[in-house]
Specification:
- The protein is α+β, with helices and mostly antiparallel strands.
- The protein has 16 helices and eleven strands.
- It folds into two domains: 37-242, 2-Layer Sandwich (Cytochrome Bc1 Complex, Chain A, domain 1); 258-447, Cytochrome Bc1 Complex, Chain A, domain 1 (2-Layer Sandwich), CATH 3.30.830.10.
- 42% of the residues lie in helices and 18% in strands.
- The strands form two sheets. Strands 1-2-6-3-5-4 form a six-stranded mixed β-sheet, with helices on both faces.
Length: 450
């Protein structure tokens, strides 16, 4: 199935998309879906814990989802959330440096972490008889991390190199920085998740300690334990490892951040790493928690998912203006956008590409979408929803995400209904609302020697 490879690579490297990504067989699979059962509790210190039993294999997955991302940073101190994704693998009171990975691997497990605009997530998968190891390590990292010179300087070097690799040393590397600054001005989404090299370089140990003490608290976290577990036994372990931490004062957040109205912006960037000319066009869109998101998500698939999609058919297949073309919803908890991307074929111009894109949008706004198009993307959505619930890690991460973002872990079983309820009229309405405007951000990347 055709997908716009470049846009997914660029966005995926900068954010962990928290919405569904529909890419499955075109079939109806609702009959294969069995609702996910779970139990939820909140400890006196505010830690939310979700238990899910899955005896299909003798393994256990733990997910700790901290309600902190790059949107919570100071405008002059960006990149801290991503920095802690790395620093949390350093030493704690009881865990020496460079041993977390080693201990997990020796126990036959694996671990990883990721950061986005709205979240920082750590996860382990281990044989079920090693569940105590995962819980002990996460409890150590939650309040007993060593934010000291050795760990900070080690990870400062690692993060700086990652920043250079993602921004200075890859094609279109400044896209996210420019896109966020112009599309989400005034909000905590106005800079990319990875942050600024300069801000990380200038950060003090105390800056990092303050960030850790504010956000890495039990009351700002959701813990999911899923797999081959005995819930009563696991509850005892949870209390042993996490129960003694006190409930902190309320987490301080940036209430002064306010998303500004979108202003038209057009910019051409000469990029010596770019292999060919690419055009990126951003429109304001709904946030992840906006009811409009479901219709917008399906609209994005109609426009660009598969070789039969509208943009592929027109820009790549018929007119041969582009070698890649797509549009993706860029949705976070407090803001959203549509981001169209067109990589031009040799000899073609951005004016030609933009003209065709505008024609396709005008056709959409005039005629809407067909029954066949809507059925196709709903079938894709249904298939991905079902198959995405068969993997233990996916279930654990989804339970945490739904609880943190929506306050309802039960949406793991019901969110599909919101997609299935979308009508052609809904698609037309959101298309007019978000695409029927001249307020857009246009970024054109030209190869240096073009």
């Amino acid at each position: 199935m055709y997908k716009s490879k470049l846009i997914h690579k660029l966005l995926g490297a900068a954010i962990m998309l928290t919405s569904m990504v529909f890419a499955g067989a075109n079939l109806s699979a609702a009959g294969d879906f069995k609702p996910i059962k779970f139990e939820k509790e909140t400890l006196p210190n505010g830690l939310k814990v979700i238990y899910h039993v899955d005896k299909s294999a003798p393994i256990v997955t733990t997910v700790v989802h901290y309600n902190v991302g790059s949107c919570d940073e100071d405008t002059s101190r960006t990149g801290y959330a991503h920095f802690f994704e790395h620093l949390m693998f350093e030493a704690t009171d009881a865990i020496p440096r460079a041993t977390i990975d080693k201990n997990v691997q020796e126990a036959g497990g694996e671990l990883n972490a990721y950061t986005s605009f709205d979240q920082t997530v750590f996860h382990f998968t281990l044989p079920s008889n090693e569940v105590k190891l995962a819980l002990w390590m996460e409890s150590q990292r939650m309040r007993k991390l060593h934010v000291d010179e050795i760990g900070v300087e080690t990870q400062r070097g690692v993060v700086t190199e990652e920043l250079k690799m993602r921004t200075l040393n890859q094609p279109y590397g400044t896209l996210l920085s420019k896109f966020c600054a112009n599309t989400f001005a005034g909000s905590g989404y106005a800079w990319p998740v990875i942050g600024s090299i300069d801000h990380i370089a200038k950060a003090t140990i105390q800056n990092f300690k303050d960030f850790y003490d504010n956000y890495y608290q039990p009351s700002n976290a959701t813990l999911v334990i899923a797999g081959d577990i005995d819930v009563a036994e696991i509850k005892k372990y949870v209390r042993d490892y996490f129960g003694d931490y006190p409930k902190p004062a309320s987490v301080k957040r940036h209430d002064e951040y306010k998303l500004e109205p979108l202003k038209p912006h057009r910019e051409t960037v000469i990029d010596d790493k770019a292999p060919m000319t690419a055009m990126f066009i951003g429109y304001r869109g709904p946030s992840l928690t906006d009811p409009d998101y479901y219709a917008v998500s399906l609209l994005g698939d109609i426009l660009s998912s598969g070789e039969s999609s509208r943009l592929y058919q027109r820009l790549v297949d018929k007119d041969q203006i582009a070698v890649e073309a797509g549009v993706s919803p860029f949705a976070v908890r407090g803001a959203g956008a549509f981001l169209a991307q067109i990589v031009l074929a040799s000899g073609k111009t951005t004016d030609e590409a933009e003209k065709v894109l505008n024609e396709e949008i005008a056709r959409l706004l005039k005629d809407g979408v067909t029954d066949k198009e809507l059925t196709k993307v709903k079938n894709m959505c249904e298939s991905q929803f079902v198959f995405g619930k068969k993997d233990l890690m996916s279930k654990a991460q989804d339970l945490a995400r739904y609880e943190v973002f929506f306050g309802d872990a039960g949406m793991i079983n019901t969110e599909l209904d919101k997609y299935m309820a979308v009508t052609k009229a809904d698609i037309l309405r959101v298309a007019k609302k978000y695409l029927g405007t001249d307020n857009k951000v246009v970024l054109i990347y030209e190869p240096k020697n073009s």
